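Propose amino acids for all 198 sites.
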């Protein structure tokens, strides 16, 4: 694969983890926080820029992700829902002209790794499809790669709408890569207990 690919990533980390009772992004798994795991995977996959959208727990998260290789942007309207964080992340991409696309990732899928990110990029390059989604639990979801032609559509999302709306809307231009453990995400203390028991 051409290592000079230009794909960025927007990591959505603005939620307040209300069902969990503490910031899920800072939960520890395998010796690192969930948010750090996604950042490290993106860096290893040579995604650039790595943009993190914070919201509810911005100060706590900023302390954890304080490194020069990332761009941290605060979504002051995070309570509007997922769409506001996507818009904040896309808008923060100063110079999109060199980007072929971006990956949208969330911060509570503990099994995201650089191999998955590279698979999304490779599939985008080999399939010539504009959207590459992760496939798990018989559905398509995050992380998901959007070609730059979809940036405007991402900016038009409203409220709780997220990547799934565009995956459905443009289904004929979607390819997928398998992400066997993609269905494991952390929303509750029970989810976290099960993760640590695996």
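Proposal:
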């Amino acid at each position: 694969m051409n290592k000079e690919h230009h794909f960025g990533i927007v990591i959505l980390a603005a939620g307040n983890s209300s069902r969990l009772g503490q910031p899920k992004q800072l939960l520890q798994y395998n010796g690192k926080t969930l948010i750090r795991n996604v950042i490290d995977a993106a860096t290893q996959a040579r995604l650039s820029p790595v943009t993190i959208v914070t919201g509810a727990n911005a100060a706590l998260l900023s302390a954890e992700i304080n490194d020069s290789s990332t761009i941290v942007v605060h979504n002051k309207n995070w309570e509007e829902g997922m769409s506001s964080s996507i818009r904040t992340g896309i808008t923060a991409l100063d110079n999109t002209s060199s980007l072929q696309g971006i990956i949208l990732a969330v911060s509570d899928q503990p099994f995201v790794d650089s191999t998955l990110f590279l698979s999304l990029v490779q599939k985008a390059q080999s399939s010539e499809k504009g959207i590459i989604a992760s496939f798990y639990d018989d559905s398509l979801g995050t992380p998901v790669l959007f070609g730059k032609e979809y940036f405007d559509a991402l900016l038009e999302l409203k409220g709780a709408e997220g990547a799934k709306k565009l995956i459905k809307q443009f289904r004929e231009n979607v390819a997928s890569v398998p992400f066997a453990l993609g269905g494991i995400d952390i929303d509750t203390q029970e989810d976290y207990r099960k993760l640590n028991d695996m």
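Helices lie at 34-44, 58-64, 82-91, 114-127, 151-155, 163-169, 189-197. The two ends are 34 Å apart (CA to CA).
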